[in-house]
Amino acid sequence: MERDDIIEYSLDGHHSEEQGVQIRKKIWKVTAILTAITIVEVVLGAMIKQHSSAWHLVKWSFIIMTLVKAAYIVLVFMHLGDEKKSLRYVILVPYFIFICYLIFILLTEGTAVGAAWDKYGVY
Amino acid sequence: MAGHATEQIDTKTLWGGKISPFSTSYGKLMMWFFLVSDALTFGGLLVSYGFTRFTAEDAWPIGEETFNSLPFLGHGYPLIYVALMTFILIVSSVTMVLAVEAGHRMDKKGVIKWMVATIIGGFFFVGSQAWEWSHFIHGSEFGKVELADGSQAIVKGHFGEIQSFEVLEAGHHLKKGAIIKEDLMHQYQHAVEKGHIENNIITLHDGSKAKINKAENEHVELHIKKDGGKYKKGAVIKGENASKMYDEVINSGDAKRVIYGANLRENEYGPQQYAQFFFFITGFHGFHVFSGVVINIIILIGVLRGLYHRRGHYEMVEKTGLYWHFVDLVWVFVFTFFYLV
Fold first, then answer.
1. Looking at this predicted complex, what is its ipTM?
2. CB atoms B52 and A8 under 8 Å
3. Taking Cα atoms as reference points, which of B80, B55, B60 lies closest to residue B69?
Protein backbone atom coordinates (compact mmCIF):
# COMPACT_ATOMS: atom_id res chain seq x y z
CA MET A 1 0.00 0.00 0.00
CA GLU A 2 1.38 3.42 -0.90
CA ARG A 3 2.20 5.65 2.02
CA ASP A 4 0.79 9.17 1.64
CA ASP A 5 2.33 10.66 4.76
CA ILE A 6 5.99 10.66 3.80
CA ILE A 7 7.22 13.90 2.27
CA GLU A 8 10.39 13.44 0.27
CA TYR A 9 12.31 16.59 1.10
CA SER A 10 15.28 15.38 -0.87
CA LEU A 11 13.45 15.70 -4.13
CA ASP A 12 13.72 19.47 -3.67
CA GLY A 13 17.40 19.18 -2.91
CA HIS A 14 18.58 18.87 -6.49
CA HIS A 15 20.61 21.50 -8.27
CA SER A 16 21.45 22.17 -11.89
CA GLU A 17 24.75 21.70 -13.72
CA GLU A 18 25.68 25.41 -13.45
CA GLN A 19 24.99 25.50 -9.72
CA GLY A 20 27.04 22.30 -9.50
CA VAL A 21 30.07 24.05 -10.94
CA GLN A 22 29.83 26.79 -8.33
CA ILE A 23 29.37 24.31 -5.52
CA ARG A 24 32.33 22.23 -6.62
CA LYS A 25 34.52 25.34 -6.69
CA LYS A 26 33.55 26.04 -3.11
CA ILE A 27 34.34 22.46 -2.10
CA TRP A 28 37.85 22.67 -3.59
CA LYS A 29 38.41 26.03 -1.92
CA VAL A 30 37.53 24.61 1.50
CA THR A 31 39.78 21.59 0.79
CA ALA A 32 42.69 23.94 0.14
CA ILE A 33 41.99 25.79 3.40
CA LEU A 34 41.88 22.54 5.40
CA THR A 35 45.10 21.27 3.83
CA ALA A 36 46.88 24.55 4.47
CA ILE A 37 45.84 24.58 8.12
CA THR A 38 46.98 20.96 8.56
CA ILE A 39 50.38 21.72 7.01
CA VAL A 40 50.85 24.70 9.33
CA GLU A 41 49.93 22.52 12.31
CA VAL A 42 52.38 19.77 11.38
CA VAL A 43 55.25 22.15 10.67
CA LEU A 44 54.73 23.97 13.95
CA GLY A 45 54.40 20.69 15.82
CA ALA A 46 57.60 19.28 14.40
CA MET A 47 59.61 22.48 14.81
CA ILE A 48 58.66 23.95 18.18
CA LYS A 49 59.50 21.70 21.08
CA GLN A 50 57.44 21.38 24.22
CA HIS A 51 59.91 22.99 26.56
CA SER A 52 60.46 26.11 24.44
CA SER A 53 59.01 29.44 25.42
CA ALA A 54 56.66 29.68 22.47
CA TRP A 55 54.99 26.38 23.28
CA HIS A 56 52.04 27.80 25.22
CA LEU A 57 51.11 30.03 22.31
CA VAL A 58 51.59 27.22 19.81
CA LYS A 59 49.44 24.84 21.83
CA TRP A 60 46.52 27.27 21.87
CA SER A 61 46.95 27.99 18.18
CA PHE A 62 46.62 24.23 17.53
CA ILE A 63 43.34 24.14 19.39
CA ILE A 64 41.98 27.18 17.57
CA MET A 65 43.09 25.80 14.18
CA THR A 66 41.44 22.48 14.97
CA LEU A 67 38.17 24.23 15.83
CA VAL A 68 38.35 26.17 12.55
CA LYS A 69 38.86 22.90 10.64
CA ALA A 70 35.96 21.34 12.52
CA ALA A 71 33.72 24.29 11.69
CA TYR A 72 34.50 24.03 7.98
CA ILE A 73 33.87 20.28 7.95
CA VAL A 74 30.58 20.52 9.81
CA LEU A 75 29.16 23.58 8.07
CA VAL A 76 30.32 22.97 4.50
CA PHE A 77 31.07 19.25 4.05
CA MET A 78 28.22 18.05 6.21
CA HIS A 79 25.95 20.75 4.76
CA LEU A 80 24.78 21.85 8.19
CA GLY A 81 25.18 25.39 6.95
CA ASP A 82 22.51 24.69 4.34
CA GLU A 83 20.00 23.40 6.82
CA LYS A 84 17.40 25.38 8.74
CA LYS A 85 18.77 27.52 11.55
CA SER A 86 16.66 25.65 14.09
CA LEU A 87 18.26 22.32 13.15
CA ARG A 88 21.72 23.86 13.32
CA TYR A 89 21.03 25.07 16.82
CA VAL A 90 19.49 21.76 17.94
CA ILE A 91 22.67 19.94 16.92
CA LEU A 92 25.36 22.39 17.96
CA VAL A 93 24.17 24.23 21.08
CA PRO A 94 23.65 21.29 23.49
CA TYR A 95 26.88 19.69 22.35
CA PHE A 96 28.94 22.83 22.89
CA ILE A 97 27.48 23.59 26.30
CA PHE A 98 28.11 20.02 27.43
CA ILE A 99 31.58 19.60 26.00
CA CYS A 100 32.86 22.97 27.20
CA TYR A 101 31.80 22.22 30.73
CA LEU A 102 33.17 18.67 30.55
CA ILE A 103 36.55 19.87 29.34
CA PHE A 104 36.74 22.53 32.02
CA ILE A 105 35.77 20.26 34.91
CA LEU A 106 37.95 17.30 33.89
CA LEU A 107 41.08 19.38 33.32
CA THR A 108 40.51 21.17 36.64
CA GLU A 109 40.00 17.89 38.46
CA GLY A 110 42.93 16.32 36.67
CA THR A 111 45.27 19.03 37.82
CA ALA A 112 43.93 18.82 41.38
CA VAL A 113 44.22 15.04 41.46
CA GLY A 114 47.76 15.25 40.09
CA ALA A 115 48.72 17.67 42.84
CA ALA A 116 47.09 15.49 45.51
CA TRP A 117 48.89 12.39 44.25
CA ASP A 118 52.21 14.23 44.27
CA LYS A 119 51.62 15.34 47.82
CA TYR A 120 50.15 12.22 49.39
CA GLY A 121 51.24 9.48 47.00
CA VAL A 122 49.15 7.64 44.42
CA TYR A 123 46.08 5.85 45.84
CA MET B 1 24.37 29.76 3.01
CA ALA B 2 21.26 28.78 1.14
CA GLY B 3 19.66 25.41 0.71
CA HIS B 4 16.10 24.52 -0.05
CA ALA B 5 15.55 23.97 3.68
CA THR B 6 16.03 27.63 4.50
CA GLU B 7 12.99 28.88 2.63
CA GLN B 8 10.67 30.67 5.01
CA ILE B 9 7.58 28.88 6.24
CA ASP B 10 5.46 30.47 8.95
CA THR B 11 5.83 29.00 12.41
CA LYS B 12 2.24 27.82 12.72
CA THR B 13 2.51 25.66 9.60
CA LEU B 14 5.99 24.52 10.45
CA TRP B 15 5.13 23.20 13.88
CA GLY B 16 1.50 22.40 13.15
CA GLY B 17 2.11 18.78 12.29
CA LYS B 18 2.41 16.49 9.27
CA ILE B 19 5.54 18.22 7.98
CA SER B 20 9.07 18.27 9.31
CA PRO B 21 9.77 21.43 11.32
CA PHE B 22 13.36 21.22 10.10
CA SER B 23 12.32 20.62 6.48
CA THR B 24 14.41 17.50 6.40
CA SER B 25 13.69 13.81 6.23
CA TYR B 26 13.44 11.48 9.21
CA GLY B 27 16.48 9.47 8.15
CA LYS B 28 18.75 12.49 7.93
CA LEU B 29 17.57 13.88 11.26
CA MET B 30 18.16 10.54 12.97
CA MET B 31 21.63 10.33 11.46
CA TRP B 32 22.41 13.76 12.94
CA PHE B 33 21.15 12.66 16.34
CA PHE B 34 23.28 9.53 16.17
CA LEU B 35 26.30 11.62 15.24
CA VAL B 36 25.75 13.91 18.25
CA SER B 37 25.65 10.87 20.54
CA ASP B 38 28.78 9.40 18.97
CA ALA B 39 30.48 12.77 19.21
CA LEU B 40 29.68 12.80 22.92
CA THR B 41 31.24 9.34 23.24
CA PHE B 42 34.44 10.41 21.54
CA GLY B 43 34.37 13.67 23.45
CA GLY B 44 34.18 11.72 26.68
CA LEU B 45 37.10 9.51 25.66
CA LEU B 46 39.29 12.44 24.65
CA VAL B 47 38.46 14.41 27.78
CA SER B 48 39.34 11.42 29.99
CA TYR B 49 42.61 11.22 28.08
CA GLY B 50 43.12 14.86 28.98
CA PHE B 51 42.30 14.14 32.63
CA THR B 52 44.83 11.31 32.84
CA ARG B 53 47.43 13.40 31.09
CA PHE B 54 46.93 16.29 33.50
CA THR B 55 47.40 13.99 36.48
CA ALA B 56 50.68 12.76 35.02
CA GLU B 57 52.02 16.27 34.26
CA ASP B 58 55.43 16.08 32.64
CA ALA B 59 55.86 12.32 32.72
CA TRP B 60 53.78 12.18 29.54
CA PRO B 61 55.46 11.19 26.26
CA ILE B 62 55.92 13.87 23.63
CA GLY B 63 54.08 13.28 20.36
CA GLU B 64 56.77 14.17 17.88
CA GLU B 65 59.33 12.02 19.72
CA THR B 66 57.16 8.94 19.90
CA PHE B 67 55.73 9.04 16.41
CA ASN B 68 58.60 9.77 14.12
CA SER B 69 58.76 6.87 11.67
CA LEU B 70 57.76 6.31 8.11
CA PRO B 71 57.17 2.84 6.63
CA PHE B 72 60.29 1.58 4.85
CA LEU B 73 62.19 4.73 5.72
CA GLY B 74 62.82 4.39 9.45
CA HIS B 75 62.81 7.16 12.00
CA GLY B 76 63.68 10.82 12.03
CA TYR B 77 60.48 12.02 10.39
CA PRO B 78 58.49 13.49 13.27
CA LEU B 79 54.75 13.39 12.73
CA ILE B 80 55.02 13.07 8.94
CA TYR B 81 53.21 9.77 8.72
CA VAL B 82 50.33 10.88 10.88
CA ALA B 83 50.08 14.08 8.83
CA LEU B 84 49.85 11.91 5.73
CA MET B 85 47.07 9.89 7.35
CA THR B 86 45.19 13.09 8.18
CA PHE B 87 45.57 14.25 4.61
CA ILE B 88 44.29 10.91 3.23
CA LEU B 89 41.21 11.07 5.45
CA ILE B 90 40.49 14.70 4.56
CA VAL B 91 40.81 13.89 0.85
CA SER B 92 38.45 10.94 1.23
CA SER B 93 36.01 13.33 2.93
CA VAL B 94 36.30 15.66 -0.06
CA THR B 95 35.61 12.86 -2.51
CA MET B 96 32.55 11.98 -0.43
CA VAL B 97 31.23 15.56 -0.64
CA LEU B 98 31.76 15.42 -4.39
CA ALA B 99 29.78 12.16 -4.50
CA VAL B 100 26.90 13.83 -2.64
CA GLU B 101 27.08 16.82 -4.99
CA ALA B 102 26.92 14.49 -7.99
CA GLY B 103 23.90 12.87 -6.38
CA HIS B 104 22.17 16.25 -6.19
CA ARG B 105 22.53 16.47 -9.98
CA MET B 106 21.32 12.87 -10.44
CA ASP B 107 24.72 12.13 -12.02
CA LYS B 108 24.95 8.37 -11.33
CA LYS B 109 28.39 7.92 -12.94
CA GLY B 110 29.78 10.79 -10.88
CA VAL B 111 28.44 9.31 -7.67
CA ILE B 112 30.04 5.94 -8.45
CA LYS B 113 33.39 7.50 -9.32
CA TRP B 114 33.64 9.58 -6.17
CA MET B 115 32.37 6.87 -3.84
CA VAL B 116 34.97 4.42 -5.13
CA ALA B 117 37.65 7.05 -4.43
CA THR B 118 36.28 7.50 -0.90
CA ILE B 119 36.35 3.77 -0.23
CA ILE B 120 39.95 3.51 -1.44
CA GLY B 121 40.97 6.42 0.81
CA GLY B 122 39.25 4.73 3.74
CA PHE B 123 41.14 1.48 3.16
CA PHE B 124 44.44 3.37 2.96
CA PHE B 125 43.68 5.04 6.29
CA VAL B 126 42.83 1.79 8.08
CA GLY B 127 45.96 0.15 6.63
CA SER B 128 48.10 3.08 7.79
CA GLN B 129 46.61 2.95 11.26
CA ALA B 130 47.41 -0.77 11.43
CA TRP B 131 51.03 0.00 10.53
CA GLU B 132 51.16 2.69 13.24
CA TRP B 133 49.90 0.19 15.81
CA SER B 134 52.40 -2.45 14.84
CA HIS B 135 55.22 0.05 14.97
CA PHE B 136 54.09 1.39 18.34
CA ILE B 137 53.89 -2.12 19.77
CA HIS B 138 57.23 -3.04 18.30
CA GLY B 139 59.04 -0.07 19.78
CA SER B 140 62.14 1.83 18.82
CA GLU B 141 65.52 0.29 18.09
CA PHE B 142 67.02 1.47 21.37
CA GLY B 143 64.16 0.76 23.76
CA LYS B 144 63.85 2.28 27.23
CA VAL B 145 66.72 1.32 29.54
CA GLU B 146 67.13 0.94 33.26
CA LEU B 147 70.52 2.31 34.19
CA ALA B 148 72.82 0.98 36.89
CA ASP B 149 71.48 3.42 39.50
CA GLY B 150 67.86 2.40 38.95
CA SER B 151 66.84 5.42 36.88
CA GLN B 152 65.06 4.88 33.58
CA ALA B 153 65.99 6.63 30.37
CA ILE B 154 64.81 6.83 26.80
CA VAL B 155 67.53 6.81 24.19
CA LYS B 156 68.05 9.08 21.21
CA GLY B 157 70.63 8.77 18.52
CA HIS B 158 71.51 6.65 15.56
CA PHE B 159 71.35 2.89 16.18
CA GLY B 160 74.30 1.16 14.53
CA GLU B 161 73.20 -1.44 12.02
CA ILE B 162 73.64 -5.09 13.00
CA GLN B 163 75.52 -6.71 10.16
CA SER B 164 75.60 -10.38 11.17
CA PHE B 165 75.93 -12.96 13.93
CA GLU B 166 78.92 -15.34 13.78
CA VAL B 167 78.27 -18.60 15.63
CA LEU B 168 81.12 -19.43 18.02
CA GLU B 169 79.54 -22.33 19.91
CA ALA B 170 77.10 -24.70 18.24
CA GLY B 171 73.54 -25.13 19.50
CA HIS B 172 70.66 -27.41 18.51
CA HIS B 173 70.43 -26.20 14.92
CA LEU B 174 73.37 -23.96 14.13
CA LYS B 175 76.89 -25.15 13.58
CA LYS B 176 80.03 -23.34 14.65
CA GLY B 177 81.16 -20.84 12.04
CA ALA B 178 77.67 -20.25 10.64
CA ILE B 179 76.95 -16.67 9.64
CA ILE B 180 73.42 -15.40 10.25
CA LYS B 181 72.17 -12.43 8.27
CA GLU B 182 68.40 -12.62 8.59
CA ASP B 183 65.98 -11.38 11.24
CA LEU B 184 68.89 -9.92 13.20
CA MET B 185 67.09 -7.01 14.92
CA HIS B 186 64.28 -9.22 16.10
CA GLN B 187 66.57 -11.81 17.67
CA TYR B 188 68.77 -9.07 19.12
CA GLN B 189 65.85 -7.38 20.87
CA HIS B 190 64.48 -10.65 22.19
CA ALA B 191 67.90 -11.53 23.56
CA VAL B 192 68.34 -8.14 25.20
CA GLU B 193 64.97 -8.41 26.93
CA LYS B 194 65.90 -11.80 28.34
CA GLY B 195 69.42 -10.80 29.30
CA HIS B 196 70.98 -13.18 26.75
CA ILE B 197 73.67 -10.78 25.58
CA GLU B 198 76.93 -10.62 27.53
CA ASN B 199 80.16 -9.02 26.35
CA ASN B 200 78.86 -8.79 22.82
CA ILE B 201 78.07 -12.52 22.71
CA ILE B 202 74.44 -13.35 22.01
CA THR B 203 72.77 -16.61 23.05
CA LEU B 204 70.36 -17.45 20.24
CA HIS B 205 67.03 -19.28 20.42
CA ASP B 206 68.58 -22.71 19.89
CA GLY B 207 71.19 -22.24 22.59
CA SER B 208 74.14 -21.47 20.31
CA LYS B 209 76.40 -18.54 21.14
CA ALA B 210 77.34 -16.04 18.47
CA LYS B 211 79.47 -12.93 18.16
CA ILE B 212 77.59 -9.79 17.23
CA ASN B 213 79.01 -7.83 14.28
CA LYS B 214 77.44 -4.43 14.59
CA ALA B 215 78.19 -0.85 13.66
CA GLU B 216 78.72 1.61 16.50
CA ASN B 217 75.74 3.55 17.84
CA GLU B 218 76.22 7.24 17.13
CA HIS B 219 75.18 10.44 18.93
CA VAL B 220 73.72 8.45 21.81
CA GLU B 221 71.81 10.59 24.31
CA LEU B 222 70.14 9.25 27.44
CA HIS B 223 67.13 11.26 28.62
CA ILE B 224 66.22 10.32 32.16
CA LYS B 225 62.48 9.86 32.63
CA LYS B 226 62.43 8.33 36.09
CA ASP B 227 64.57 9.18 39.11
CA GLY B 228 67.26 6.78 40.20
CA GLY B 229 69.96 6.88 42.88
CA LYS B 230 72.27 9.10 40.91
CA TYR B 231 70.35 10.56 37.95
CA LYS B 232 67.13 12.52 38.29
CA LYS B 233 64.24 12.99 35.89
CA GLY B 234 65.03 15.50 33.17
CA ALA B 235 68.77 14.89 33.17
CA VAL B 236 70.43 14.28 29.82
CA ILE B 237 73.62 12.26 29.40
CA LYS B 238 75.52 12.69 26.16
CA GLY B 239 78.70 11.64 24.42
CA GLU B 240 81.04 8.78 25.20
CA ASN B 241 79.58 8.34 28.67
CA ALA B 242 76.09 7.82 27.25
CA SER B 243 77.30 5.26 24.72
CA LYS B 244 79.20 3.36 27.39
CA MET B 245 76.27 3.36 29.80
CA TYR B 246 73.89 2.14 27.11
CA ASP B 247 76.25 -0.64 26.05
CA GLU B 248 76.61 -1.64 29.70
CA VAL B 249 72.86 -2.21 29.96
CA ILE B 250 72.73 -4.22 26.73
CA ASN B 251 75.70 -6.41 27.66
CA SER B 252 74.90 -6.86 31.33
CA GLY B 253 73.20 -10.23 30.99
CA ASP B 254 70.40 -8.98 33.27
CA ALA B 255 66.90 -9.54 32.01
CA LYS B 256 64.22 -6.87 31.89
CA ARG B 257 66.54 -3.88 31.88
CA VAL B 258 65.34 -2.85 28.45
CA ILE B 259 61.73 -2.40 27.37
CA TYR B 260 60.87 -2.34 23.68
CA GLY B 261 57.58 -0.92 22.51
CA ALA B 262 54.24 -0.74 24.22
CA ASN B 263 51.70 -3.37 25.05
CA LEU B 264 49.21 -3.77 27.85
CA ARG B 265 51.85 -4.81 30.40
CA GLU B 266 54.74 -2.44 29.98
CA ASN B 267 55.51 0.66 28.04
CA GLU B 268 58.71 2.01 26.51
CA TYR B 269 57.31 5.48 25.95
CA GLY B 270 55.97 6.50 29.35
CA PRO B 271 53.12 5.78 31.74
CA GLN B 272 51.14 2.63 31.05
CA GLN B 273 47.95 4.59 30.44
CA TYR B 274 49.54 6.28 27.43
CA ALA B 275 49.49 3.01 25.54
CA GLN B 276 46.04 2.09 26.82
CA PHE B 277 44.50 5.35 25.67
CA PHE B 278 46.37 5.22 22.37
CA PHE B 279 45.06 1.75 21.58
CA PHE B 280 41.53 2.43 22.77
CA ILE B 281 40.93 5.81 21.16
CA THR B 282 42.67 5.12 17.85
CA GLY B 283 41.23 1.61 17.82
CA PHE B 284 37.68 2.83 18.42
CA HIS B 285 38.17 5.45 15.74
CA GLY B 286 39.69 2.91 13.35
CA PHE B 287 36.66 0.70 13.97
CA HIS B 288 34.43 3.59 12.95
CA VAL B 289 36.48 4.15 9.80
CA PHE B 290 36.26 0.47 8.94
CA SER B 291 32.51 0.30 9.50
CA GLY B 292 32.19 3.48 7.44
CA VAL B 293 34.03 1.79 4.59
CA VAL B 294 31.74 -1.23 4.83
CA ILE B 295 28.61 0.95 4.80
CA ASN B 296 30.02 2.90 1.85
CA ILE B 297 30.52 -0.34 -0.07
CA ILE B 298 26.95 -1.44 0.64
CA ILE B 299 25.51 1.89 -0.51
CA LEU B 300 27.80 1.85 -3.57
CA ILE B 301 26.26 -1.47 -4.55
CA GLY B 302 22.84 0.15 -4.24
CA VAL B 303 23.96 3.02 -6.46
CA LEU B 304 25.37 0.61 -9.04
CA ARG B 305 22.03 -1.18 -9.19
CA GLY B 306 20.25 2.11 -9.89
CA LEU B 307 18.21 1.90 -6.71
CA TYR B 308 18.61 5.55 -5.77
CA HIS B 309 18.25 6.81 -9.31
CA ARG B 310 14.86 5.11 -9.51
CA ARG B 311 13.94 6.61 -6.15
CA GLY B 312 14.59 10.07 -7.53
CA HIS B 313 17.16 11.21 -5.02
CA TYR B 314 20.52 10.15 -3.60
CA GLU B 315 19.71 10.97 0.01
CA MET B 316 21.14 7.66 1.21
CA VAL B 317 24.50 8.72 -0.18
CA GLU B 318 24.14 11.99 1.68
CA LYS B 319 23.40 10.23 4.98
CA THR B 320 26.37 7.92 4.51
CA GLY B 321 28.40 11.00 3.74
CA LEU B 322 27.39 12.54 7.06
CA TYR B 323 28.74 9.48 8.88
CA TRP B 324 31.96 9.60 6.88
CA HIS B 325 32.52 13.28 7.60
CA PHE B 326 31.91 12.65 11.27
CA VAL B 327 34.68 10.03 11.21
CA ASP B 328 37.01 12.60 9.64
CA LEU B 329 35.98 15.20 12.21
CA VAL B 330 36.82 12.90 15.12
CA TRP B 331 40.19 12.18 13.57
CA VAL B 332 40.96 15.90 13.35
CA PHE B 333 40.46 16.12 17.12
CA VAL B 334 42.33 12.90 17.93
CA PHE B 335 45.21 14.13 15.75
CA THR B 336 45.42 17.41 17.63
CA PHE B 337 45.15 16.08 21.16
CA PHE B 338 47.18 12.92 20.82
CA TYR B 339 49.94 13.85 18.44
CA LEU B 340 50.30 17.60 18.39
CA VAL B 341 49.58 19.06 21.79
1. 0.88
2. no
3. B80
